[in-house]
């Protein structure tokens, strides 16, 4: 293990090298932008599915408690679907806001 006095110098030199590498690359790669877009798409899908599953689970529990078999499963699944759509729309707005800010910077 190196001496403690050398560690801050090596960390500083490493951060300087990282900063220089970031400056030299300059451009954002199209691949990383594509991955960000795909990340938003998967996030929206997960929000929709999660909302439906939570609604289904709550409906199933209520149906089991009150012995009203398909009533609460259907209604709570629809509420979960609506909540998932609402959350998905917020994510889409967030995505479009970030895209607009990037376009304004360019």
Q: How would you describe the overall organization of this protein?
A:
This protein has about 110 residues and is an all-alpha fold. Helices cover about 90% and strands about 0% of the residues. It has one domain. The chain has 3 helices and no strands. Helix 2 (about 30-65) packs antiparallel against helix 3 (about 70-105). The protein starts with 5 loop residues before the first helix and ends with a helix.
Provide a brief overview of the structure.
With 106 residues, the protein is mostly helical. It has helices at 6-25, 30-66, 69-105. The model has no long low-confidence stretch (mean pLDDT 87).
Properties at a glance:
106 residues, mainly alpha, 3 helices, 89% helix, elongated
């Amino acid at each position: 293990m190196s001496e403690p006095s050398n560690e801050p110098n090596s960390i500083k030199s490493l951060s300087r090298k990282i900063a220089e590498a970031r400056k030299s690359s300059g451009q954002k790669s199209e691949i990383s932008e594509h991955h960000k877009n795909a990340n938003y798409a998967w996030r929206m899908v997960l929000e929709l599915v999660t909302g439906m599953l939570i609604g289904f689970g709550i409906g199933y529990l209520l149906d089991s408690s009150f012995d009203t078999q398909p009533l609460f499963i259907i209604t709570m699944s629809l509420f979960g679907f609506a909540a998932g759509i609402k959350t998905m729309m917020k994510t889409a707005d967030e995505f479009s806001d970030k895209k607009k800010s990037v376009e304004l910077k360019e």
